[in-house]
Amino acid sequence: MNDEARANYGHAELRRLIDPEIVAVVGASATPGSFGQRTLANLSSFTGEVFAINPKYGTLLGRPCVPSLADLPRPPDCVVLCVARPAVQGMIEEAGAAGAGGVIVYASGFSETGKPERIAAQEELVRTARRLGVRIAGPNCVGLANTRTRAGMNFMPDYDGMGHRRGPVAIVSQSGALGYAVLQAMARGIGFSHYLAAGNSADVDVADFVAYLADDPDVRSVIACFEGVKDGGRFLDAARRARAAGKALIVYKAGNGEISGKAALSHTGTMVGSHSAYRAAFEAAGAVVADNLEETVELAAFFARSGPPGGRAGGRPLGILSTSGGAAVICADKAETHGLALPPLAPETAAKLHEVVPDFGSVANPADLTAEVLKDAGTFAFCLDAFLSDPGYAGYVIPMVFAHPSSSVARAPMVVEAARRTDRPIAIVWMNEWLEGPGTAIFDADAKVSMFRSADRCLAAFRAWFDWHEAGIPPAAARRSDPGAAAAARRIIAEAGARGGGPLSESASKRVLAAYGIAVPGEELAADPAAAAAAALRVGFPVAVKVSSPDIAHKTEAGGIRLGLRSAAEVEAAAAAVLASARAYAPDAAIAGVSVQRMVPAGVELAIGSTCDPQFGPLVALGLGGVMVELLGDTAVRLAPATETDVRAMLASLRGRRLLDGFRGAPPVDVGRIVDAVCRLSELAHDLRDVVAEIDVNPLIATADGAVAADALVVAAAPSGPAG
User: Fold this and answer.
1) 343 phi, psi to nearest 5 deg
2) Residue 324 DSSP label
3) What is the enclosing helix (H) or strand (E) of 562?
């Protein structure tokens, strides 16, 4: 079913599904282990009303039981269907007739089977629900949970026994079991507000849930776990709503292998894959990316418990306070890895620590207080207060290297109490293998202190926190190209005869780029070798000769290029050789002749391009030029149109970035011209997303004086291609 036209559901559409006051359980049962029995058990602490629906009983687990939804005394907000697949369609109709606002469908066997008749059955569920004004979670869904009202509307074992620990972190997951595995952090003290599983996402999906949570005042961060989204535009809208509300969206996307059956016509195809597209979307929306499931809870709890960075301006300064020299060094190493600063202690802080730290310790940052300070709890508290009083740090890292019933339990309340006296975050790194040893429950349950079970994840979280607050809400791209550029480029594509899809010639491709103000070398098209020699005299030496054919995308492989020609005779001979080689390589290719081009001065070669992702529309890619794109994979990708800030960040992320600054005596290049060219190309890709499938500029030659597209390929989209 096509959902592209609709907006995300919000509170008005989803409140009764997610935050119900009355819940009805169809298929409720007394059979231990059945979905109906588990659901009733998980609702045993629900603060609202629960009705069991089963004609066999008068009551079930202390709840009133009626024969059918039609027999309810009041309209239910949410109906949980613990019934088999064949019964689901009829029960949705009954739920609508009873005035329900939402339905949770446990049953599987719908679109996930891939069978056409099951896909059609799922689509019919949605048509029925929308006609009746009922929202569906599922099918193939394990259910939902709302800790605010203790509504455990799911069939997971012993949900009610986990304690309904409330907190400002919400979980959204396509995979019910995976999301529930994250929710089980409640057992160690982490608090959550919601657990929302999307299942098959027939109606309500991940984007809808994120949009709903963005407007919930009790939520401060959201974990979203999924393999893919139904509609990239709606996901971006939801993520940006969360960002605008000051709520960190922690995204973990599974299924990131770049396996594609499509043979790319250009280098851009090797630069951009599905994973790259999602990363670009997350970047554009201000989401925080988790590379591993294990870090999602730590990141979400840290963001929920930490305000914006304070302390010394700039430099991302942290203080590390340890009772182990080895632990201090490990944390310092990770701080350096993640680009975080460890500035020295303020003189007054150092003076205080010198009063109690033995001379075999280290009064520095990181500080090694040594185990001596642990002999007296008051000494540790004194050192902690001295550190937290230092105005030079935006946050603090305290590694805990061993757990002991006396020492670690004694220190935990001191840290928690100290956290109340500062507005800056305190992170504990639990570095021992007693993963839930004494003191961990105190740290996990605290509203201000954050605990990490990895030094690397701790310092990576601080880096993400600094990045997120410094970036703010992503700005819109400023227009660089002439307002008439799109119309001019469309005319060129139409004149090239590529409306039905396929590559344009290099000459036509460059004219499309030139319409957007991207610099291209002077050139003339020549039908034969003699005409090529004459053209070279007009263009000016040195020149390049290239075969001109929309059917030969990779001219080098066809032997269709000769460079650095300095006389008419060289040009005539080169043109003859190029045409002969191209005809041998592609006998059926339409060859217009050769393009005679003014040679671009030597410089740093980059590759820039765009492709149209089916979920997120046009993307712009940037990397080192030539074969280095494929050899090193040193590329960066953003959604189009890209801002100047985006492009400068892309350049900064390249491993070969130093080439632009001048390397081994080479002059630095004009980075501003590179930025301008990439921004303009991104506008082209965005403006013409309905008619252009791919753009490849390789190389874009950057020099101290500018950036010129020395070679280009524009691939027109087929009429049925993505519109973005």
Assistant:
1) -70, 160
2) -
3) strand 561-565
